[in-house]
Amino acid sequence: MAELPNKSLADRAYHIRRNAVLMGEVQGQGYIAQALDIADVLAVAYFHAMRYRPEDPEWEGRDRFLLSNGHYAIALYAALIEAGIIPENELETYGSDDSRLPMSGMAQYTPGMEMSGGSLGIGLSIAVGKCLGLKRKGSSSFVYTLFSDGELDEGSVWEAILSAAHHKLDNLIAIVDINNMQADGPSTQMMGFEPLKEKLEAFGWFTQRIDGNDLDAVVAAFDAAKAHPGPQPRMIIADTLMGKGVPFLETRDKSHFIRVDAHEWQLALQALDAGRSA
Amino acid sequence: MKPKFTPPVPGKPRLTTSAMIASIAAEGQATKPAPFGHALVELARTRPDIVGMTADLGKYTDLHIFAKAYPDRFYQMGMAEQLLFGAAGGLASEGFTPFATTYAVFASRRAYDFIHQTIAEEDRDVKIVAALPGLTSGYGPSHQAAEDLALFRAMPNMVVVDPCDALDTEQATAAIAAHKGPAYMRLLRGNVPLVLDAYDYRFELGKAKLIRDGRDVLVISSGILTMRVLEAAKLLEKDGISIGVLHCPTIKPLDVETIRREAGKSGRLVIVAENHTEIGGLGEAVARDLMLSGIHPTFRHIALPDEFLGAGALPTLHDRYGISTEAIAASIKGWLG
Q1: What pLDDT does B24 receive?
Q2: Which of residues 60-89 of B touch A (CB under 8 A)?
Q3: Does an H or E element contain B269, and which?
Q4: Rg of chain A, C-alpha, whole Å
Q5: Which ipTM was obtained for this model?
Q6: What's the total number of domains in chain B?
Q7: Is domain A9-277 given the CATH code 3.40.50.970 in the classification?
Q8: Alpha-carbon gap: B4 to the closest alpha carbon of chain A (Å)
């Protein structure tokens, strides 16, 4: 873990959520609910599990973090700002002309962004190649790969799941965000993927299923994934709540790409503050 | 509508080789075995960054030669082309130079978005080497990549190469390895004809080369059609027709300087000949550039028609679609009147 000021993970998660809401306000809309649901996972990844150097995002010894679901870029930018990889004052450029923070994450634009997402179902394939490459180099780095439950519909994801087990990629830690929402509605109604843990175990993965908004559970899952002695790739199935931390967003129906009224951004920040002091 | 049964013609045997893999070498033609595979093995001796990858087609893309020489630098990715190219992008992002092989139909049509996103858009050093390009299989449209050049031309950052023979393939392999960035190379595999050794020729990435000069016709060609056009030119010499051949194995970036210089010489019919659909390949690329540069020769195009091609023996199909030596010679003769 990088040397960072001693802040609690809950505090990190709060700042990630706050950064995301502030970026959402720049555009008036966006994938805010996903950023809020995944903030706890990102807090644990960046402030507990991963090795990196904020001043040198391409440091060879770093753990890699692949964002397969490129529309979650708002969440990753929020974490990269909190980690000191992106300066905080770039936040106000989110999704604007000439910004390094485009709405969909792209490797060519942003420090700390390792792949170009957006076309869903691609990240795990890249992860397989990176893991093979790191093993060739004798590196002990992990490749963390975040993807969404909707991506489980893509056949290419299962190609990569087969392949990672076949090649015994024990340096791959994948996290799938089960927020049960994709563009047209609840993920499980678009294409049933349960029972997911049993499926992944049958495919040869060391698999854990946790409440992705329970920081202690997330920490334990990352620790177990890193420490697992077997040659299997590791999967963390994280059940999360869209809009987590902002009650009026948690209960909103159309939560995949939300528009928020101007006065509501302040309410969202207030809700985060209230949750923090609670 | 499905065709009706064609009854046999007495005394005329049917050609029976509609197999997936058909040799493009004419009977008695000099050949060289697996030029790509052997060239890659040679390159890998001094390039530890080079790795080989395939999607269950090592044997059919001559990559098995590399796999045998460097088993620990070879990755079998299974019959999963999207994974193949995504993983190739991942390996390249860690500093390696993957040569990733499959059939041209699967690289271009099945894995296009993966190549676009993980290789071209990120400008990764991946070399895509694809067998059965254009019409080099009698197996039917599932294995005939008539449109691969059009698709890869349209992808920013992608270098596109269509070699003619064994010598071209060997030298192009070294050239794309030396090039920094993504490249797509059409692969001739197995016993590959050796033709260009008879000429003063060397492959250079991005260069068109005048293989022979001619008075009446200039043919600008790539891939195996350069070989066919050279043969057609010899046939037509007997009729007093003099044909120049400008071999243009790099489809992108196009050597517009040489093409303008040769096509701009007055009085010659200019023909583009390619083993590719008439849409989006070398012919349209050359025609566009000549129009833009104000060079307006009489122009003809030898290419595959915009239709799903038939199954059958390769010589039959090459005759039917006008890309056999005899068909090319007949077209040129007809155009000259």
Answers
A1: 83
A2: 75, 77-78, 80, 82-83, 85-89
A3: strand B269-277
A4: 17
A5: 0.94
A6: 2
A7: yes
A8: 38
